[in-house]
Amino acid sequence: MRVAFFNEVDTYSAIQGMDAKSIIRGICLDPRIGQHYNNPSFGYGGYCLPKDTRQLLTNYYRVPQNLIRAIVDANETRKDFIANDILNRELKTIGIYRLTMKSGSDNFRESSILGVINRLKSSGAQIIIYEPIITEPDMAGLKLINDLDDFINQSDVIVANRTSPEIECVSHKIYTRDIYGSDL
């Protein structure tokens, strides 16, 4: 719920042309909310949250509720927003920097970027992926590039769920909603 909330605050800020970081900082001044897990992302993902929220929604089938459905729906809406925001920039080659959800991870199962990629791919966008932990030349028909310099040179935009020091040199090419440079 918290992840979905801050993602929606970020979406609102982006659409309204407002500074998401300032708005989120203001919200987090309330000590009941605090400064943790408030960094926008492309949606929640990973081992547990997607399957657990869907299972919770299934378990609630006889319980009057709106919140659990809204959390699941908000995550899909967020991926729709991210994909549309990228597509509206009318770029030739969209580079996806890493498939993992957070830094230091080697897992990308149910990573939110995969949902964004599917939306971009269905629009016909040209997509390349930089994911050094995958050694195959492609993934689901998308070209994988393991050389960071080649990836940077071929990408008109670099889509990164979380920023990284290794791509800071091309900050002008980076599309991210990461405002704190952190997974927390």
Fold and architecture overview:
This protein is an alpha/beta fold. It has one domain (44-175): NAD(P)-binding Rossmann-like Domain (Rossmann fold, 3-Layer(aba) Sandwich). Helices cover 40% and strands 11% of the residues. The chain has six helices and six strands. Strands 3-4-2-1-5-6 form a six-stranded mixed beta sheet, with helices on both faces. A hairpin with a 2-residue loop joins strand 3 (138-139) and strand 4. Helix 3 crosses helix 4. The chain is globular. The mean pLDDT is 91.
Number of helices: 6
CATH superfamily: NAD(P)-binding Rossmann-like Domain
Order of helices and strands: HHHHEHEEEHEE
Q: What does the largest sheet look like?
A: 6 strands, mixed
How would you sum up the global shape?
globular
CATH domain class: Alpha Beta
CATH architecture: 3-Layer(aba) Sandwich
Features:
single chain, 184 residues, alpha/beta, Rossmann fold, six-stranded mixed sheet, globular
Which helices and strands, and how do they pair?
Layout: H1 2-16, H2 20-28, H3 49-59, H4 67-87, E1 93-97, H5 112-122, E2 126-130, E3 138-139, E4 142-144, H6 148-154, E5 157-159, E6 174-175
Parallel strand pairs: 1-2, 1-5, 2-4, 5-6
Antiparallel strand pairs: 3-4
Helix pairs in contact: 1-2, 1-4, 3-4, 4-5
